[in-house]
Every structure is written in structure tokens, then in C-alpha cells.
Amino acid sequence: xxxxxxxxxxxxxxxxxxxxxxxxxxxxxxxxxxxxxxxxxxxxxxxxxxxxxxxxxxxxxxxxxxxxxxxxxxxxxxxxxxxxxxxxxxxxxxxxxxxxxxxxxxxxxxxxxxxxxxxxxxxxxxxxxxxxxxxxxxxxxxxxxxxxxxxxxxxxxxxxxxxxxxxxxxx
Length: 171
Description:
Blueprint: E1 6-8, E2 11-15, H1 21-28, H2 45-56, E3 61-67, E4 75-83, E5 86-93, H3 102-115, E6 122-127, H4 132-140, E7 144-155, E8 158-168
Parallel strand pairs: 5-6
Antiparallel strand pairs: 1-2, 2-3, 3-4, 4-5, 6-8, 7-8
Helix pairs in contact: 1-2
């Protein structure tokens, strides 16, 4: 599968590659940005490279670098097709790129691709209840809270709950 680039004013999503490791290590290596991930912040860009390679090798993974112009990755957005018609979204942004609307525009582009090109009928997100920035991003994008999964993740900061959010194509 060849992943297309997706564009909107001020944002270009291009297929992620292992060559984006140095740029994304800025996010994955930041303990505050990486706090709500299942693993601690990465120790070096090599760890980020391995993480990217593992992610790209997953069945059903569609992963883009979030850029302003097709250049340096300021973040990444991933769509994982879990089963027929259902996808899960995940996003990470470098701290200095947050608050500029890039994540919102990236999420909208991937949503349009998922509901249009891939013909998915449901998109979900699994977010730590203390991750107010991600919760706000997805709620602003029209996702609805569907539930709370208690002690759903064992992470570097302990057992964590998950807020499950979803958006339906025809809702």
C-alpha cells in the first residue's frame, strides 16, 4: 500500500519514515510530551527510529508525519485499522508545534481519508483521562466520550484508565 500525502491550508501530512526519527525524538524524548504514553520518554533517536519502524510494520497502520510544508516532522498522526470498518487514531506533537492548529487540521485530514477513501464507519481514540490536551483535541473534532476503561494500561507511571472516544461516519 502506498500512503498518499494529505494537504490542507497550513499543513501537509506525508508518509512517515524512519528518517523522521531525529525530528520526532524531540517529542518522543520529551518526558512531559510523552507522559501519557504506555512507555517512558525515549532515551535517544535510535529508540525513536525503532519505534517508528515497529509502528510502520504493524498490520493496518497508516502513519503520517505532520508538517507545515512537507518538510520536517513536527508530529505524527496514526490510523490503525483494527477490523473491518473500524480505526483507532493516535497523535503526538512536538511541544513547540502545539497550539497552532496543526493537530486539529491533521486529525480532520485523516478522518476524511478514513471515512472516505478507506470507507471506515467508526473512528476511536484511547486517551488517558489526565491528558486534557488530547481529550480537548478529539472532543473539538466531534468525537464523543463513550466510556471509561478502568486500569486499562500498565505504564511507566502506573496503572492508567482509558477514556474511549469515538466518531461515526454517518453521525
